[in-house]
Design brief:
The chain contains 7 helices and 14 strands. It is of the alpha+beta class. It has one domain (4-295). The strands form 3 sheets. Strands 1, 2, 4, 5, 6, 7, 10 and 11 form an 8-stranded antiparallel β-sheet that branches. Helix 1 (2-19) crosses helix 2. The longest helix has 21 residues, at 276-296. The chain is globular, with a radius of gyration of 19 Å. Bound molecules: 2-acetamido-2-deoxy-beta-D-glucopyranose (6 copies). This is Pherophorin domain-containing protein. Keywords: Signal. Residues 1-19 form the signal peptide.
Length: 298
């Protein structure tokens, strides 16, 4: 049941992306023109998930081209990369966590070559740098695994969105920049800790468990949390409080600000993969079987 729901959701998300520009009537449209906002207003934001993309392809996401809301570029990313989109409705100057469920992450990556998943946030013609939220390819991202959390700062001047910026979490929690669990997104200038690939598979000690599903609760640790906070001023020049609050904290505290008791990394500071490519193969083979099940059965 839960799995079907995700399948439907992904379909809706995919068709939502294709139709965004035509759908000015949809309730929360991240491509709607920007109007000056005040604290507490609702604020739609889009997150695009793009498997296997080389960040240089996303050079097209410039403001003058209309960013992710350029339909030509949307169609190109859908057709060539199977890009998907998720839409969130935020409240201006609230701290919020946008959660990307593991099933949405992993089913976007089935057979992805190279096995990476990039994510960018967008609203109207403003787009963030792309970052990687999942990787089985150490050549591109240094560390491997499923990113636990990252922080997005929405920078607003006099009520109008100017920038969507990632806040570097430095990987202190998982042993620093050289940790095998530290995913580097050089184009976005950030590093963030990941859950090991081996914790996100139905295979234990080489044996696949056929009654296990990526919708099971134990895969909640494999989801990614995007912590959103606001910087700058609203349309009446009131200064936002949530962004400075995040900037004052170090990476440990940010994680605990948004997530209750994430002490999971204590045991992982010296984590070493036996073989990232073998670990990724196990994840991918589980994904293939569940994916066929999920699309074939619908
Ligand atoms: C990404 O594309 C750029 C420009 O085409 C190229 O120089 C670079 O090697 C590519 N990176 C990877 C990891 O394929
Ligand atoms: C920009 O997007 C177009 C499709 O809209 C694509 O053909 C082109 O290759 C992209 N540019 C780069 C640098 O990838
Ligand atoms: C981006 O969109 C805003 C309106 O939402 C417009 O004022 C601005 O000129 C656009 N930027 C570029 C570079 O076209
Ligand atoms: C959309 O992006 C393409 C490149 O991908 C660019 O050539 C085109 O001019 C853009 N369209 C608009 C309306 O900015
Ligand atoms: C990964 O799995 C191991 C063994 O099941 C467990 O001890 C560890 O806490 C898990 N780590 C995370 C980050 O979920
Ligand atoms: C197989 O997966 C199910 C559902 O996640 C779990 O309840 C069961 O304990 C697993 N069996 C083994 C042998 O790991």
């Amino acid at each position: 049941m839960a799995r079907l729901f995700v399948a439907k959701l992904l379909l809706q998300l995919a068709s939502g992306l294709a139709a965004l520009s035509l759908c000015s009537g949809i309730a929360f449209n991240p491509c709607a023109p920007l109007t000056p906002v005040s604290r507490g207003d609702s604020f739609p934001l889009g997150l695009v998930l793009i498997p296997s993309v080389n960040a240089s392809v996303l050079a097209n996401l410039t403001e003058s081209y209309g960013g992710m809301c350029n339909t030509t570029f949307q169609d190109y990313l859908i057709k060539n990369y199977k890009a998907r989109i998720a839409i969130y409705n935020l409240r201006v100057d609230r701290l919020q966590v946008l959660r990307m469920p593991y099933a949405d992450i992993i089913f976007s990556m089935v057979n992805a070559t190279p096995p990476t998943l990039a994510l960018a946030a967008f609203r109207a013609n403003v787009t963030s740098q792309p970052i990687y939220i999942a990787s089985g390819d150490t050549a591109q991202t240094f560390g491997a695994g499923f990113m636990v959390s990252t922080s997005l700062l929405l920078r607003i001047e006099e009520g109008t969105l100017r920038y969507l910026q990632w806040y570097d979490l430095t990987c202190n929690e998982c042993g620093g920049a050289t940790s095998q669990l530290c995913i580097h997104s050089s184009q976005g200038g950030i590093k963030a800790c990941a859950t090991p690939l081996d914790n996100c598979t139905c295979t234990t000690n080489g044996v696949a468990n056929s009654s296990c599903s990526f919708d099971d609760e134990r895969f909640d640790v494999c989801s990614t949390a995007i912590n959103a906070a606001w910087l700058g001023t609203d349309r009446s020049l009131a200064v936002f409080r949530t962004g400075p609050q995040v900037q004052r904290l170090n990476a440990y505290s940010i994680t605990s600000l948004f997530n209750a008791a994430r002490s999971k990394f204590e045991s992982l500071k010296n984590y070493v993969y036996t073989s990232v490519s073998e670990s990724w193969s196990a994840v991918n083979s589980d994904t293939q079987s569940q994916y066929v099940d999920f699309w074939g059965g619908g």
